[in-house]
Amino acid sequence: EAGVAQSPRYKIIEKRQSVAFWCNPISGHATLYWYQQILGQGPKLLIQFQNNGVVDDSQLPKDRFSAERLKGVDSTLKIQPAKLEDSAVYLCASSSSSQGYEQYFGPGTRLTVT
Amino acid sequence: KNEVEQSPQNLTAQEGEFITINCSYSVGISALHWLQQHPGGGIVSLFMLSSGKKKHGRLIATINIQEKHSSLHITASHPRDSAVYICAARGAYARQLTFGSGTQLTVLP
Fold first, then answer.
1. Which one of A52, B20, B75, B97 is separated from A78 by 20 to 30 angstroms, measured CA to CA?
2. CA B99 to chain centre
3. Contact (CB, 8 A) for A16 and A82
4. Closest to B96 (Cβ–Cβ): which among A41, A56, A110?
């Protein structure tokens, strides 16, 4: 079974630039999560999708962050414009009710904003 | 809102030592996860448990629901065990996880 795929793995941008991350969840997983993990901290949930609908985006900084999952499969997370404090690892995870909602994580995208 | 605390934050051990990492949470949960994160960012799920004890190789996870506490033990530690270990609590009614801040484990040869 293929795992959660993310790209790119690394990205370096200057502040005020834009960046987009892509996630392909495990096939059949209806729930998809985007997390932000700042160095030395645990992951923080940014947004949770159930199929193509948003379940929770209460911690997403909506003035600069956006996410979509148009067909209920792949998802993209965008930051526009980026700030220095956005430097972090962005993790995507997916889960399924048939597997007890255990979350499977992708390898993450390490973003550095200079 | 669940608060998840881990201890210690950093742990250095000699190869072969028995290691314990602790996790406590503040409200009732449906499951407690132990995760491993290597440099580079990717997270691997080690255990998901809601009661008792689970064992996989040299790793053992226990949970005490009444005391709202879980432990991860590593027997006969090895340098390849060096990683960040994170506990995460899943709420009683939600699928979301609340994460601890992680324990950086370094095992020296």
1. B97
2. 10
3. yes
4. A56
Residue B92's pLDDT is: 73
**Distance (Å, rounded) from C-alpha B106 to C-alpha A73?**
38
Share of chain B above pLDDT 70, in %: 97
pLDDT tens by residue, A63-81: 999 999 988 899 999 999 9
Residue A84 confidence (pLDDT) above 90: yes
Q: Judge whether A40 and B103 are in contact, CB under 8 Å.
A: no
Residues A40, B101: C-beta atoms closer than 8 Å: yes
Secondary structure class of B29 (helix, strand, coil):
strand
Amino acid in position A94: S
**pLDDT beyond 80 at A1:** no
Beta pairing, strands B103-108 & B52-56? unpaired
Distances (CA, A) of A93 to A55, A84, B38: 14, 24, 16
- B7: number of Cβ within 10 Å: 13
Q: Which residues pair with B103 in a beta bridge?
A: B85
SS3 A62: coil
* A42, B2, A66, A52: CA torsion to nearest 10: 110
The mean per-residue pLDDT over the stretch B44-58 comes to: 93
Confidence of residue A102 (pLDDT cuts 50, 70, 90): confident
CA distance A39 to chain B (A): 10
- How many CA atoms are closer than 13 Å to the CA of B21, on its beta-carbon side? 32
Q: Give the number of other Cβ atoms within 10 Å of residue B55's Cβ.
A: 12
